Amino acid sequence: GDSVTQMEGPVTLSEEAFLTINCTYTATGYPSLFWYVQYPGEGLQLLLKATKADDKGSNKGFEATYRKETTSFHLEKGSVQVSDSAVYFCALSIPQGGSEKLVFGKGTKLTVNP
Amino acid sequence: DTAVSQTPKYLVTQMGNDKSIKCEQNLGHDTMYWYKQDSKKFLKIMFSYNNKELIINETVPNRFSPKSPDKAHLNLHINSLELGDSAVYFCASSQGAGFYGYTFGSGTRLTVV
């Protein structure tokens, strides 16, 4: 079935370090891909998305490129800040009967130290 | 204005009780969802409704019953609560199928004691 695999955490970085969180997916068809972020005690917020192969989603300095050949959607940021500390979820979207079903990875907890 | 609002934010209750969680969205979206996040942060879909019609019903015990009185509201009623029901429950809404992603509520932390 459709699934998302993302790198196990936790990830701990110093401020201004480079971030990569790996995400690969398995899907029949061509899903849309998403990264969501969850700050402590809050709900999930959409960080970025890409709807077709070679699309690049970007927001707040984060980027991810939809790679169909490697079925990947890795999240990157050139210089992380303490405020980026959160749990990051990769997800794919499957249209289903007029709605869309989001299938999530297990989440990667990022801690950024000053 | 909160886009997707859930109440209550916290719910502590005893095993065997029945409880409800309410959700409302003011985004004009046609589709609403319930997701369960377990203690390891894993998120799994439970239900989706499109314009008051049940679309997705994953393998959820029938003690869980969603109800959608109109397309802006999706409530979750849970009968005979069990310890394993303890989790954070998220309501979400989306504009359509496939390309939009969800807008999530801030969650309801349910603790069954």
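qc> Residues 39 and 87 of chain B are 6 Å apart (CA to CA).
qc> done
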